[in-house]
UniProtKB/TrEMBL annotation, chain A:
It comes from Tenggerimyces flavus. Pfam families: Peripla_BP_4 (PF13407). Residues 69-321 form the Periplasmic binding protein domain. This is Sugar ABC transporter substrate-binding protein. It is found in: Cell envelope. InterPro entries: Bact_Solute-Bind_Prot2, Peripla_BP_I, SBP_2_dom. Its main location: other.
UniProtKB/TrEMBL annotation, chain B:
This is ABC transporter permease. It is a multi-pass membrane protein. Coiled coil: none annotated. Its main location: membrane. Pfam families: BPD_transp_2 (PF02653). It is found in: Cell membrane. The lineage of its organism: Bacteria, Bacillati, Actinomycetota, Actinomycetes, Propionibacteriales. InterPro entries: ABC_transp_permease (IPR001851). It comes from the Bacteria. The chain crosses the membrane at residues 20-40, 99-120, 125-146, 166-183, 298-317. It comes from Tenggerimyces flavus. Keywords: Cell membrane, Membrane, Transmembrane, Transmembrane helix.
Length: 376, 323
């Protein structure tokens, strides 16, 4: 390659091509090499190259490589995480980086460990990970940190008081606290008697802390409420049947609650099917899937808790980007993506607007709002 | 030139050759596009993608060759490490006997599968489909569907049993080597092929077909249990959502990609290993390149079909060359 003008070589570097393609291009082996080399030269002479001071990147930032962040998720095809992916995509578009969405479809920790290890081998620029198992991810996260790759957890972060990894920060709902708030709300709505809490997959650390928190809050309320935890299963049809059957077998039920999106939707459907609201049964749960929102609008569900999945994609990208940009000086901060009770009073905007922020639409838009902002 | 061609012909006569070529081509592709495929850490990753699937696939080959299939093996994989955990943490049994106990119980599940299939004459597809749910229920009920850490008493054994980087693949290669020898050079292997190839002929020739089938059910199930235990040691957690139908289908796919006939009578253990390598290389490589989860399944499905099509056609070339 000795006879290649260094300027051409430099220009070709800007393509970021794999080694083989670049070699082929430079030696003229590829079909498009002449055209590509010409356009690379043009690009090299373009306005981008004129100044070398700061502010050449996005906004006022310096020019950065196209950093790549890997999101390792436990249920990659679950609708709950659609807005999370939009959040990550929007943050990447803003900052000129990219992300990969990978992990397991069915909460298999081994598959997630494999995906994390592969991201380390691939020298990813950052990893965002759902820590749904308190033991399995300790080693992979340490490996990533040893390799100089920043890691944050999102959506799930081990067990209460035991994050399970040495990640730099957790970005997501404080799960145990959200459970406590659920329990407090249950104690407000129910005086005494039998209450059930449905959980899709007990032990899964993105939902179990909620039910533990609820249990604790109910006990502390001092009311004579018996709280039963029931596993409803990982798939929606199965969850619906479980909840339906349970409600039929327990006519004295005073409340039906759930701690995951699918079970909450199931509770809403069963409440509507048997008109349980008329019998004074209280109900509520988590997340904002369409069936749940319908249930709230129609008065079958008392409330649902929003944990802002969009931010769980947007903020990890932002944190990892700033960590890279500042050479580690701006370290990711623990971020609680919130705990917002959605009730009949504030459900309307969720139902009437279709947005990327809720995952119900793909298009970018400015959502206008007016009037006072609700407060306590 | 002629010598070269003869070497080429000899190579193509081996049933595993075509799938080996596919595996090498995939590795070369991922090395060319990422430049990091052949780093030590990535080869360890690939080996961990491959090992458990290859172990189960080897057992599945023995069953497929003898004309049966085990759909429940992925759930035995989930249950076995829990059995070890119960024995160590609840019943105070030392670690190694606990693991042996888990393997014996896994083999017993295979014995029940074999008994229902051979003696009660239920097709193995149905027998093991029922067993799949039964075992899954036992796992969920006894564990309360709650993941548990590896017993601390087992810490000293962990590196040997899958926690060390190369441990899993070494186990897998040992098992593959032994079962390859069993299938190709022992009476058990010969009888297995005979039973799957011609059941009536085999039994008239005096082969105790029932015993062969039941034995292979037990081997397959025990291997499933062992794979589950070493995977639990690797990820340092015993997980009720591990395994299941995902790894079972991956194992069957590995066996089939490796050239084992679903109809019975022919198959190779080495081929199953290579099939698992192809799947593992694809999964790892896609993660290296950064293929998104949604596209992942699409491409892996297409890749399995392409690997199979090329495999079948190379096999036809091979036969044409022979005649």
């Amino acid at each position: 390659m000795g006879d290649i003008d260094p300027r051409v070589e430099e220009a070709v570097e800007t393509f970021g091509l794999p080694a083989v393609a670049r070699r082929r291009l430079l030696t003229g082996g590829g079909l498009f090499s002449a055209g590509l080399a010409a356009s690379a030269l043009l690009a090299a002479c373009g306005p981008d190259q004129q100044s070398n001071s700061g502010g050449e990147g996005v906004g006022d930032f310096p020019k950065t490589p196209k950093w790549k962040f890997v999101f390792v998720n436990h249920v990659t095809s679950n609708p709950f995480f659609v807005p999370t992916q939009y959040g990550a995509a929007d943050a990447c578009a803003l900052l000129g980086c990219e992300f990969q969405w990978t992990g397991s479809k069915t909460s298999i920790a081994g598959e997630m460990v494999n995906a994390t290890n592969a991201a380390v081998s691939a020298k990813a620029d950052g990893i965002a990970l759902c820590v749904v198992d308190v033991n399995a991810f300790a080693k992979p996260v340490d490996n990533a940190l040893d390799a100089g790759i920043p890691v944050v957890s999102y959506n799930a972060d081990g067990a209460p008081g035991k994050p399970g990894t040495n990640r730099l920060a957790y970005i997501g709902q404080d799960l145990f606290t959200s459970g406590v708030r659920l329990g407090e709300r249950i104690a407000e709505l129910v005086e005494s008697g039998e209450v059930v809490g449905f959980i899709a997959t007990p032990g899964q650390l993105n939902i179990q802390p909620r039910i533990d928190g609820a249990k604790q809050a109910i006990e502390q309320s001092g009311k004579s409420i018996t709280f039963n935890q029931i596993a409803s299963g990982a798939e929606l049809p199965q969850e619906l049947s479980t909840i339906d059957a349970y409600s039929q077998g327990h006519p004295d039920l005073k409340g039906m609650f759930a701690v995951d999106a699918g079970s909450t939707e199931g509770v809403a459907k069963v409440m509507a099917k048997y008109k349980l609201k008329d019998k004074g049964v209280a109900s509520g749960g988590f997340d904002l899937v369409p069936g749940t929102l319908e249930g709230i609008k129609n008065g079958h569900l008392d409330f649902t808790i929003d944990q802002q999945p969009y931010l769980q994609g947007f903020l990890p990208v932002l944190s990892l980007y700033l960590y890279k940009l500042s050479g580690g000086l701006v370290s990711p901060a623990e971020t609680n993506t919130g705990l917002l009770f959605v009730t009949k009073d504030n459900v309307d905007p969720y139902l009437t607007t279709k947005t990327r922020f809720e995952g119900s639409d793909t298009k970018q838009q400015l959502v206008e709002r007016s009037g006072a902002i609700g407060h306590g | 030139m002629i010598a070269l061609r003869r070497i080429g012909d000899e190579f193509l006569k081996r049933r595993e050759a075509s799938i080996l070529l596919v595996a090498i081509a995939l590795m070369a592709y991922f090395q060319a596009t990422t430049g990091i495929f052949f780093t030590e850490s990535n080869i360890v990753n690939v080996s961990q993608y491959v090992a458990a699937t290859a172990i189960i696939a080897a057992g599945q080959v023995l069953l497929l060759v003898s004309g049966e299939i085990d759909l429940s093996v992925g759930n035995v994989y989930t249950l076995a490490p829990f059995l070890m955990h119960y024995a160590v943490d609840f019943w105070g049994v030392p670690v190694i006997p606990s693991i042996l106990l888990a393997l014996v119980l896994s083999a017993l599940i295979g014995l029940v599968n074999g008994f229902i299939t051979v003696v009660l004459r239920v097709p193995s597809f149905v027998t093991t489909l029922g067993m799949l749910f039964l075992i899954s229920g036992i796992t969920l009920i006894t564990s309360n569907a709650y993941p548990v850490p590896i017993p601390t008493a087992a810490d000293a054994f962990a590196p040997w049993l899958g926690a060390a980087p190369w441990a899993e693949i070494i186990w897998a290669l040992l098992i593959i080597a032994v079962l390859h020898a069993v299938l190709t050079s022992t009476r058990w292997g010969l009888h297995t092929i005979a039973v799957g190839g011609n059941l009536l002929g085999a039994s008239e020739a005096g082969i105790r077909v029932g015993r062969i089938k039941i034995g292979n059910f037990m081997i397959c199930s025990a291997l499933g249990g062992f794979a589950g235990i070493i995977e639990a040691f690797r990820i340092d957690s015993i997980d009720p959502t591990a395994g299941g139908t995902g790894i079972m289908f991956a194992a069957v796919a590995s066996a089939v990609i490796g050239g084992t006939a679903l109809a019975g009578g022919s198959g190779t253990i080495i081929g199953a290993l290579l099939g698992a390598v192809v799947l593992g290389v694809l999964r790892d490589g896609f993660n290296l390149i950064g293929v998104d989860a949604y596209t992942f399944d699409l491409i892996i499905g297409a890749a399995i079909l392409l690997a199979m099509i090329s495999n079948v056609h190379l096999a036809r070339l091979r036969r044409a060359g022979r005649t």
